[in-house]
Design a protein that fits this description.
Elements lengths: L2 E2 L5 H6 L5 E6 L4 H16 L5 E6 L4 H6 L7 E6 L2 E7 L4 H12 L1
Length: 106
């Protein structure tokens, strides 16, 4: 299951992570967000121990969305050593998300 990332645990989970981090920024009311949610959950299982896969509810954690200048959701951020190295905006096939993560893992 994808990790719930909040403003309270962001520093520990994301900034101090030694593994690559994938953050799905979403909101309950966002239809496209619900479309990619299963992909994020599947990736959390598939990449367990290799990457941190998390979700940020932008309504509950607006500071995180502001920090990364997120204007549209869903936005999926890919971080390495606490820095954004790639991002995907909107609904994309799971394959695209997996490829993007695998690229930053190499």
């Amino acid at each position: 299951m994808a990790l719930e990332i909040t403003e309270k645990n962001f520093e520990e989970v994301v900034t101090k992570a030694t593994l690559p981090v994938v953050i799905d920024l979403w909101a309950e009311w966002c239809g496209p967000c619900r479309m990619i949610a299963p992909y994020i959950e599947e990736m959390a299982t598939e990449f367990a121990g290799k990457a941190i896969i998390g979700k940020v509810d932008v309504d509950s954690n607006p500071t995180i969305a502001q920090k990364f200048n997120v204007m549209n959701i869903p936005t999926v951020l890919f971080l390495k050593n606490g820095e954004v190295v790639d991002k995907v905006v909107g609904v994309v096939p799971k394959k695209k998300l997996v490829q993007t993560l695998e690229n930053i893992m190499n």
